[in-house]
């Protein structure tokens, strides 16, 4: 006789009660998923987890009162690193992604995601450890979580100018503002960026920032 598959335990964290209730019904309808926690903010979630109710995956909103998604994800990474965090948010800018990767989230989806993709994301996170809709970003996340061996060698390949530019890519400055800060014209910064794309085998500012984070090239 086949044993029933152990359901994936889900926590939902969103201060919008109606949305959270609808999401709970949706997720409970997925095969082998069970919502075991519903919380209005990060502090409520962490208190529940500390009481011994441990989810496998947390579906987490970013903008919440008391304790927002960023800080909640950071604390979970420190105290319960085995819990997978999947962000559901209306925000998807590159800087948002960088901040989320820095605090150790396992995936990101827009709130208007198709239910089938949400189901896929939960299953993929449980199987692979992460889920991002952009495959190249997913590879960067995987790279970020690996050991930092060869960091010194890779950093030695970069000039002081390139290292300074990489630090600035981790800030909220635009490329135009970075050019001004570095006393370069915008075209020179574009060339610097494109050369680093090729040298580091990345395709976006997220990729540059992820390289900086992985190899300890900290922002100012």
Briefly note the CATH topology name of the largest domain.
Rossmann fold
**SSE sequence, one letter per element:** EHEHEHEHEHEHHHHHH
Supply Rg. 19 Å
CATH superfamily of the largest domain: Response regulator
Q: What top-tier CATH class of the largest domain fits best?
A: Alpha Beta
Walk me through this protein's architecture.
Helices cover 52% and strands 13% of the residues. It is α/β, with parallel strands linked by helices and 220 residues long. It folds into 2 domains: 138 residues, Response regulator (Rossmann fold), CATH 3.40.50; 64 residues, Orthogonal Bundle (Arc Repressor Mutant, subunit A), CATH 1.10.10.10. A 6-stranded parallel beta sheet has the order 2-1-3-4-5-6, sandwiched between helices. Strand 4, helix 4 and strand 5 form a beta-alpha-beta unit. The longest helix has 15 residues. The chain starts with 7 loop residues before the first strand and ends in a 6-residue tail after the last helix. About 2% of the residues have low confidence.
Task: Annotate the secondary structure layout.
Blueprint: E1 8-13, H1 17-28, E2 33-39, H2 42-50, E3 57-60, H3 69-79, E4 84-89, H4 94-102, E5 107-110, H5 115-128, E6 131-132, H6 135-145, H7 151-156, H8 160-169, H9 175-181, H10 186-200, H11 205-214
Parallel strand pairs: 1-2, 1-3, 3-4, 4-5, 5-6
């Amino acid at each position: 006789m086949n044993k029933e598959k152990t359901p994936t335990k889900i926590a939902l964290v969103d201060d919008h009660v109606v949305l959270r209730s609808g999401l709970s019904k949706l997720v409970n309808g997925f095969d082998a998923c069970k919502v075991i926690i519903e919380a209005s903010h990060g502090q409520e979630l962490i208190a529940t987890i500390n009481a011994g109710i441990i989810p496998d995956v947390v579906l987490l909103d970013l903008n919440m009162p008391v304790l927002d998604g960023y800080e909640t994800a950071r604390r979970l990474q420190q105290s319960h690193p085995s819990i997978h965090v999947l962000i559901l948010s209306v925000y998807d800018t590159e800087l948002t992604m960088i901040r989320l990767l820095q605090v150790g989230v396992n995936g990101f989806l827009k709130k208007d995601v198709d239910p089938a993709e949400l189901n896929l994301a939960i299953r993929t996170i449980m199987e692979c450890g992460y889920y991002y809709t952009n495959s190249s970003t997913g590879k960067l996340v995987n790279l970020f979580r690996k050991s930092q061996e060869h960091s010194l060698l890779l950093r030695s390949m970069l000039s002081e100018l390139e290292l300074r530019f990489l630090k600035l890519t981790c800030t909220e400055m635009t490329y135009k503002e970075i050019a001004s800060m570095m006393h370069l014209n915008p075209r020179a910064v574009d060339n610097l960026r494109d050369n680093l794309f090729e040298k580091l085998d990345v395709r976006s500012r997220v990729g540059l920032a992820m390289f900086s984070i992985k190899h300890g090239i900290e922002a100012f």
